[in-house]
Amino acid sequence: MIRKIIQISFTVVLLVFMVSCKNTKQKLQEYVTSYNSTAASFKANDVTLTTARGYINDNKIELRFETNLEQNESNKTKANSSFHALLKKMISKNQIPKELVEEGVQFDAYFLADDNTVFVKEIINKESIAEILK
Fold first, then answer.
1. What is the pTM (predicted TM-score) of this model?
2. pLDDT in tens, 27-52
3. Which PROSITE patterns does the UniProt record give (predicted)?
4. Which domains does the chain have, with CATH numbers?
């Protein structure tokens, strides 16, 4: 009798554990939803808006950072250095989760001028994350 209770208990615990585990695609969706819900409170120099878009089949998340900077060479130089620092800070604060990167999710991050042209594009994946964190 006690053995049956232990077997049933073990089975129930195993089922609860399996149901509570999320796969990468679920984590990707949750990250995008969470990111976009808190985007209005995002603060960074020159950034006016940020959004995330998930591509489940490609295992990719696109992060867009819209700025109030005009597209010119001096702002491009400024954007290049400030964007790298912003991404490093976001990774260290887990705003860009290392866990997702380690599970194979790629982040394509775009720093955009006021006319939505690209100042800088960074790809964050398993290979590039160490370089960004330097």
1. 0.81
2. 999 999 999 999 999 999 889 999 99
3. PROKAR_LIPOPROTEIN
4. 23-132 (3.30.300.250)
